[in-house]
Structure formats: C-alpha cells, structure tokens
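Re-run with default settings, no changes from the original entry. Doing this only to confirm the output is reproducible before filing.
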Amino acid sequence: QVQLVESGGGLVQPGGSLRLSCAASGSFFSISAMGWYRQTPGKQRELVAIITNSGGTNYADSVKGRFTISRDNAKNAVYLQMNSLKPEDTAVYYCNMRVRTWSALVGNDYWGQGTHVTVSS
C-alpha cells in the first residue's frame, strides 16, 4: 500500500513564504515523476509544478520565478518552496507521484490528502 503524506500548509500574509513537503511510504519498486497540484472551490485541479526523476522541472506560468520544486529520492519526498505568495495562491495543494509497485508493469498516480494554503492579510 502506497501512501503520500503532506505537511507544511497554513496561513501566511501576502509576500510571505511556505514550504510544502510530501513523502511516500510503503513498499514499491520506483517513483518517476513527482508534482504539486492545487484546487480551489468550483475549479478543476491544476498543475503547479512537476519534477522528473532526472531533475527536470516544469512550472505553471502563474508561479514561475516564485515557486521551486525539488525532490529527495533517498527519502521518497518532494518539496515545494513557495515565495512571494499572493492571495490568488490560496488553494488546497496536493502532491502527486507516479509510483510503480512491485506487482505492476507501469507506474500509477498516487495523491496526497491535500494541505490548505491560505494567503491573506
């Protein structure tokens, strides 16, 4: 059973910073891509940032230059450093990992439970 556990959300003032963390636990063969998504009420979940197992990254235009995604393969973890936060960054943030379990031939998507980020004065 693969489980992703997130931490690091909270309330921050505009211009502030937060760091989200997500770690995978359980028994599995490998993890390829890792990413962060966010969702606000009434809207579809949107990609924030993604990082491949070789370290390549891609960001939503709205967060480029402000957010940084990183990963620690030894810890099966992914991080999102969020700087210069804006009220429009307020959302529930979900981590995502493409995990290949021992019994699978290909990887499947697993999701964290979501963590709330509120940017408000």
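The radius of gyration is 14 Å. The chain has a mean pLDDT of 96.
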